[in-house]
Each structure stands twice: as structure tokens, then as C-alpha cells.
């Protein structure tokens, strides 16, 4: 009775239009008051504080701030120009350059929507001029931006690692394998599309031109190299890497590229603070929910229900659960709320927690572009001034590609586990 009441009341509060964190907190506190064993009422507020009182959690607000700085500056445009100089002459070169630029942007920011608003306005007009359809251009940019959720330093991966006490570095490496696979699949699709529709190509850039574009993007390229190299070289932790990313991005955009002023940095920090507050409140609310579910032995009941099921079956159930939920909720909420429910059952079935992280993050990345409420869909509507129906039609072929990649990641563990095992 307590758990159905908790779920039902949370859904009812959501239907009334309340934020998801408020629905979680109100339902959990109410159910706890009615059914929990006698204990001090201060337990839940203490759990809320404990949920955000973690050093490693600092990486999330720091990477968000760095992503917002990068999105407002010149780093994205210089990356696009450099990549296009190398592959613009290839069939589908501009589309491929867009995909690779989104992947590189993800390696700096960890936030998918930031790539849409940073790289999208740069490449969208160019894609249209070269003969790509509006639908293809919108679908490509909106979908390729989700690479930031797969390629480290991904905020979604940090949340998963904190929820499950898994190594952040190992989860990052698992996402790198998944991100590279998805990048390759998108590039192949862009090439096939360009050949089928006879899309024009750019003239081949000379090596001096390529070297010039590379020099202009050198500081932009330095950010992912230093971040990932520092983490896996043992120079600093992911949290320290996030702090370095903020300082580096500010120095590059203000002093070197001179795109941003100090006053603009303050305005950006205000925007970042709103996003950070939402995520941290969600983490805090999710900690209370997890505590109550653990107290009610819900994860153990789920494990008992699924006992005897194969890892193939459990992975299928996890995919269906996250895919359906991803149509209606944001990625951070899904990871915080659903991961504790299925984690013990997955471990009992012998699923590696690092592999499970790659599967869950791939699911929530797909949820970013899945109708009816995929976040990137609405960002695409405002960025490219298209209707909701148009952007949904645009992403449909890419959703099919993402489903194929999800199946490969799910049932070929080597894709996500190869790099973590090499690092061990």
C-alpha cells in the first residue's frame, strides 16, 4: 500500500502542474509520515542535506557553468570551421563536420542542449545553402547534440556514478566507447543521405588553410585534451577537472578570443545558477525518495521479482522502462528516480555496473529527442523557428539510428567495457 500511494500521489501532484522535485518531496514526506516506523522527523531533512553534501557532486555545477560559457563564446564556431576544413570536400562533409563538432563540444561541456544553441545557429544556414533539407538539418543538429551525454565529461554519467557508487572515471570511459559508435553511425548516415540526394560538396581546403583553422581552434581543442588527459593521467579528479574547465573557458573566451566580457560572465553565471539549482534540488529530493524506498525494501522486492530472469531479459526491461519514461521526464530525474529501483536487480543478474551506466545514459540521451516531451525538441523549435510537428518528423530517422545503437550498446558489452578494462 505505501509504495502505490507514493507513486499515485506523486503523479497526481505532477498532473496539477507542480515541478517534479516538489511532487517527489510531497509524496515521500506524506507517505513517510503515514507508514514509516517511528523515528525522528529530522531524518528526511538530514537525508536531503546528505544527498548534496558530496565533493564529487561539485563537478556537475562546475561543468554546467563551463558549458554555458562555451555556448556563448567562439569555441563552437572555431571547432566547426576547423573540422569543416578537413572534411568539407567529402560527400556529406558539412553534415559530418557538424556531427564531429557536436562530439568535440560534448567532450568539453557534458550538456547536450548547449550544443544545439551554440553550434546549431552556425551550421544550420550553411547546411540549408548546401542543399540539405530543413528537416534533415534540424534532425541532425538536435540529435548530434545528444553525443554530449555519451561522451565524457557527461553530467548524466556523473549522476549515475553518484547514485550507484560507481567509479566516475570508469563510467566516463564506457560512455566514450558508446559515443564513438554513435558518432560513426551518424557520419555514415550523413554520407549516405548526401549521396542519395546529390548534395554539393565544398572545395578541398589546402593544407595551409587547414593549419590556419587548426591554430585558430587550438585553445578550443586544448580543453577536452587537458580535461580527459588530466583525469586519466591522474593529475586531477573529475571535480577538479570541472573547476579547471571553468577557469580555462573564462580565460579563453575573455582574454584570448575576446568574445565575452566580465559583465557577460556574471550574466551567464546567473543563468547557470538556475540550472544548477534545479539539478541539486532533484538530487536532494531523489535522495529522500531512495531512502524511503530502501526502508520499504522496494529494490529487494524488485530483485526478488526478477530473480531467475536472464541478463538479456533484465536489460530489455530496463530499456523499455527508461524509453517509456524518457518520453515524459528529463534525463536527470530519470537517473535519480529509476536507477535505485533496478540497480540491485541488475547486479544480481551479473550485469556490470559500468556497462549498466552506459545503457542507462544511452536511454536518457534518446529521451532527449523522443516525443512528446523530449527537451531537445523544444530547444530545436526555439532555435530554428520550426513547428513542433516539423521537428518531430525531422528526428524520426535519427531516433531509429539511436535505437540501433542502443541495442548494440546493450547486448555487446565490449563496446562500453573495452576501455575501462584496458585502463584497469
From TrEMBL:
Subcellular location: Cell inner membrane
Assigned keywords, A-Z: Cell inner membrane, Cell membrane, Membrane, Transmembrane, Transmembrane helix, Transport
Domain of life per record: Bacteria
Membrane topology label: Multi-pass membrane protein
Matches recorded under Pfam families: DctM
Residues annotated as domain TRAP C4-dicarboxylate transport system permease DctM subunit: 8-415
Gene Ontology CC terms: plasma membrane
Record's function text: Part of the tripartite ATP-independent periplasmic (TRAP) transport system.
NCBIfam families assigned: dctM
Assembly description: The complex comprises the extracytoplasmic solute receptor protein and the two transmembrane proteins.
Family: Belongs to the TRAP transporter large permease family.
Full protein name: TRAP transporter large permease protein
Organism field: Acuticoccus sediminis
